[in-house]
Design goal:
single chain, 129 residues, mainly alpha, 434 Repressor (Amino-terminal Domain), XRE family transcriptional regulator, Lambda_DNA-bd_dom_sf
Length: 129
């Protein structure tokens, strides 16, 4: 009997999930990921299920990817599902949230600090308060 051909999108999603799991410090096994996912969702998930997602044999539901991203803390669901082109970690996502909620003065200070750290220079501000 011929094997079912894997979908290239499912493979790409699986590769990103596997990379996220492997990026966790300390390293996380598929078994540990399944255990944590089971606790998070309140239903039994096996290491074989995680393996099926990571190998591209199965495409996980959005709620599973959301839970895995929360467990791993390394990627966003948008990145896993290829809704954006650049990898955005949870840390980057949180920093962006903080930046967006800051007032204008704090945004200038954050921007100046970031540019200073990257370039060693403070840009001249053209904004007037």
């Amino acid at each position: 009997m011929p094997r079912k051909k894997k979908d290239s999108y499912a493979i790409a999603v699986g590769e990103r999930l596997a990379a996220a799991r492997k990026a966790v410090v300390p390293a996380m096994t598929q078994g540990k990921a399944a255990e944590l996912l089971s606790k998070s969702l309140g239903k039994h998930i096996t290491a074989a299920t995680i393996s099926g997602y990571e190998s591209g044999h199965r495409l996980p539901h959005v709620f599973l990817v959301n839970a895995l991203c929360s467990i791993y803390g390394t990627l966003t669901p948008a990145y896993v599902f290829h809704f954006d082109n650049a990898a955005e970690t949870m840390q980057e996502s949180n920093l962006l949230k903080y930046f967006r909620s800051a007032d204008a003065r704090d945004k200038r200070n954050i921007t100046n600090l970031a540019l200073h750290a990257l370039n060693g220079l403070y840009p001249k501000s053209t904004d007037s308060e």
